[in-house]
Amino acid sequence: MSATTRLTTLPNGFRIVTEHMPGLQSASAGVWVMAGGRHEAPEQNGIAHFLEHMAFKGTKRRTALQIAEEIEDVGGYINAYTSREMTAYYARVLQDDVALALDVIGDIVLNPVFGKADIETERHVILQEIGQALDTPDDIIFDWLQEVCYPDQSFGRTILGPAEKVSAFKAKDLKAFVAENYGPEQMILAAAGGVDHDAIVRQAEGIFGGLKAQKQRMFEPAKFIGTERREIKDLEQVHFAMAFDAPGYRHADVYTAQLYSMAMGGGMSSRLFQKIREERGLCYSIFAQSGAYEDAGQITIYAGTSAAEVSDLMGLCVDELKRAADDMSEPEVARARAQIKAGMLMGLESPSSRAERIARLLAIYGRVPGIDEAVARIDAVTLADVRRYAGELCSASAAMALYGPVSAAPALEALRERLAS
């Protein structure tokens, strides 16, 4: 743990982690709850996200307007998000207003009212959000891809939830999810920037110290199975997304996968961008990325192209993946390594990124590894490692989602055979 990063655990298991950034007059602080989409039962799909929305609709002490006004009166910013593994409530404020931000965040996390009229209003907002996602092809296709990677699993279900389930949630359902998933051991208070660790701990003790410890609820392990989904619609482009089973955060190959995906499709110099966009002109947008979670991960490729050219594009993508096992070069790996390290180090200049980082690392590892440790692991990945990983990917489980005029697109099985041949 770096010299500026401090961790305190309260007797009930609630953790406070801070990182002081000398010279900064602002701070980012929030509560990260280890309760996301994967912690939902099938009938609860979408409730973690619904709960996040409801936190801002009013508490026992504040109306929805007062929540917004108290933060914005001091020039601050407050927001939240729901992911597959976490729900986060956070604020960015000046250093003198950290105590105010924590008081508001503690209030919305612990004391939401769940008024009937507010539930109906926010239900309508979320249904509009679902409708907007369905109208955004390069957004919804990743939800579909997740579903076909992990069919019939909590890890594969959409964060927003289906409209029919969102339409049925009641206050008792929200309260039940909180009771199951918002225990002190499932929460982390993280703050970075112009922060005083001891002052934050004292305040956290008053807000969260009285919560009763409870046993962490187990979630369903993720198992990458991989199927195909194609939705035919009269669009200008075919949206193509393909995913491969990849390492989770704790796997030794997690940084190898990141370097590989960066070299393949992480920028304008990457293989897929150069071959498919620059040389062949088959698309405007194409990229590859690596996503890692506690016990799972994916290498994902996305591109949008015309119906007439989708078959060529998909075939070229597979050919480039296959070729990387034999001729990935040292300069490509070095460039990918530099891009990943630069992105990570540049992010450290932001208090929001630092607070997010220390919260996530503490949730994953139970400690906050120093930056030097991450850099060393990235530097330790060799060209041979990346080539080996590229070869293993050729036989890894795969999934695919297509949206648009997709009748000419090859099937997933045909792509897998081409990759393995």
Number of strands: 11
Order of helices and strands: EEEHHEEHHHHHEHEEHHEEHHHHHEH
Give the overall average pLDDT: 95
Broad structural category: alpha+beta
- Total of helices: 16
- Lateral arrangement of strands in the main beta sheet: 1-2-6-3-5-4
Shape: globular
Share of helix among residues? 40-55%
* Distance linking N and C termini: 46 Å
Largest sheet: 6 strands, mixed
Name the assembly state. single chain
Low-confidence stretches: none
Query: Which strand-content bin applies to the residues?
Result: 15-25%
Rg estimate, integer Å: 23 Å
Describe this entry's structure for a reader.
This protein is of the alpha+beta class. The protein has helices at residues 47-54, 64-72, 98-110, 116-134, 137-149, 163-166, 171-181, 197-208, 254-265, 271-279, 310-327, 330-347, 351-365, 371-380, 383-393, 412-420, and strands at residues 5-9, 15-20, 26-33, 77-82, 87-94, 187-193, 228-232, 238-246, 286-292, 297-305, 398-404. The strands form 2 sheets. Strands 1-2-6-3-5-4 form a 6-stranded mixed sheet, sandwiched between helices. It has a 5-stranded mixed sheet with strand order 7-11-8-10-9. Strand 1 (5-9) and strand 2 form a beta hairpin. Helix 9 crosses helix 15. The protein is globular, with a radius of gyration of 23 Å. The chain starts with a strand and ends with a helix. The model has no long low-confidence stretch (mean pLDDT 95).
